[in-house]
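User: structure tokens for Cell division protein FtsI, please.
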Amino acid sequence: MVLHQRKNKISFLFILLVATMAIFLFSVLKTILSPRDIPSQYTIVHDRSLRGDIISADNYTLSRSQKTYQAVIHGASIDPAKRKAFVRLFSIYSGIPEEDVLKKFKDKNGKDFRGNIVLAKDINFKSAMQLKELAYKLRKLGAFKTTKTSSGIEVLYGLDIVENGETREFPLKDVLSPVLGYVRNRNEERYSRPHGIKGLERKYEKHITSKKNGYFKGERDVVASVIHNKNSIEMPRVDGMDLHLNVPLAFQRRIELMIDRMKASIDADEILAGVMESSTGKVLALASTERYDPRHIHNKDISALDPKFSEYAYEAGSVIKPLTLAIALNHKVVTPDTWFNTYNGKLKIGKRRTISDDEKFDALTATDIIVHSSNVGISQISWRLTGQQFRDGLIKFGLSKPSGLDLSRDVPGRIKSLHLLNNNMHRANSSYGYGMLVTFAQLFKAYSAFNNNGVAVTPRLVDYLSDDKGNRYTLEPKEGDLKAVEKKAAGQIHDILLEVVKRGTGVKAQYPGLEIGGKTGTAHIAKGGRYVREYHSSFYGFANDKEGHKYTIGVLVIRAKKYHKYFASQSAVPTFRRIVDILVELDYLKPEGGKIDTLSPIKLDKPKEDNGTMPERTNVKNPSINELFEMKSKPKPKPKRKKRPAAKPKPKPKPPVRKPLTKEKIEELSAEDLF
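Assistant: Done. Predicted tokens:
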């Protein structure tokens, strides 16, 4: 019995010993396998890549990226006796008011935060470096104390400046918008990066976006700073490529300031203007009066976000007439001297439709049909072509296809189907620019053919891209140059457009000593299936000098509302001439006989609010770049009020006598009939 009891006790002790050993081994194994908050012997400093810059032809940065940082502090790590001094210093270095910094330390109930506190976000590089210097000084002064982690390890936290993203800067604000476009930030693994939404920022997104992040890895010291020694590893970052434009900032800004004042003087909704080299397609200016600051977009800017140069399709009117005649000349069905019966300005088509001209002529040559902008004459020229010939000819000029202008969106517009163009009425309407939709960029490209031996060149904003090693890259446009017509036909239209400026609707574009040609167009705007008394006014043409400088210029005025200013000859043509003045002033064109005085300043009925524009002046020194961005209209002093005499009853005003319209004729038909 006693022996049996001893055996049980020994067995129990053995089992207890085995269990104890098992528990011990399990505990050791768990300790080995479980993660521990032991500081790593190595640390990594990330160096994230940046988006490329956009740079003007005269080397001004129009768009650039900067890194942003946030300031983080551990609430329990600040010595309470030194918190007030910390807050004051942080406020001085960051520019954030002291009371706003103090609020960060309290929760909704007024209790102190013990964990991490984000004191500031979106700190720029300069401020971040200053705050890092402050953090180092505060650590030396003992502003921080050690705290225990959950595992009991003593850790000294300080003021951490952490890279948290990238922001896009537009230092010149609204200049070259909406061409530059705008961006939106997206979070990628808690890091914010800009992505292009419109304009050049969108078009070249994959080329200018960040390529490859860099880092520096090495052993760490007791305060977690990386030690630079032979064991360190550095991987350099690869930034996005820079865009180098063909657009000189000085010239672009002069055009913008001028069209701003022109818009105000004729009460237009918007004015678009463009200048490019006729032989290369290099765009020197592409300006709109509807601009915005890409960093600060407001509700009022929404309509301006889309660059209308390649996204706004409209009926162009009479600027299509030279294209129609060029196609006919190319097919040799007419010559510039072919006579046409113009029926004293009235031509019936069928029982219900009449084509009419404002200027009444019994007969005109093909040349004078363009000079006097005869709808009757150009209709008959189009009838000498088949529907197929006419339609194919328009396509060769680049209509109904993207222009190739390097912006985010390039709409193709629309011309009528072959079935419709086989009908005389539809072919006639299209011959003078109705019943079709075109863009500014398409006509800009098409008119270059008349100044470039029949080749319509693709407008190009970007000259080349470059990387951080200085290598240059050029991209071929998706839509290349077009052989619109033969050299002979292009030369004949070139000469006819010169006549338009010499004695037609473009006389206000003349500049002595220069070769100026172009064509006006004034077209009704359709709303709700009917044409209303609102107009698109345009003038497309060229300006050349004897030294070989050749430029294609386009102007589009949208809804000029001042009386009679909707005529292209009263709005688009004077704008064109002022562009020529600027080309001469900045030595892009050299007229024979030298420069002449510029046009008189653009008149405004009432002084406008300060908008950063400058009245044009004559015989003054050309302003520098810095001066162009400091131009502010000085407010006029308010006149002293005088006592008014007792009001007398005013006689009822007589209704104004309106003069008959004597310029370009607008054909009033239903919009539905033309499409």
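User: Anything notable?

Assistant: The two ends are 118 Å apart (CA to CA).
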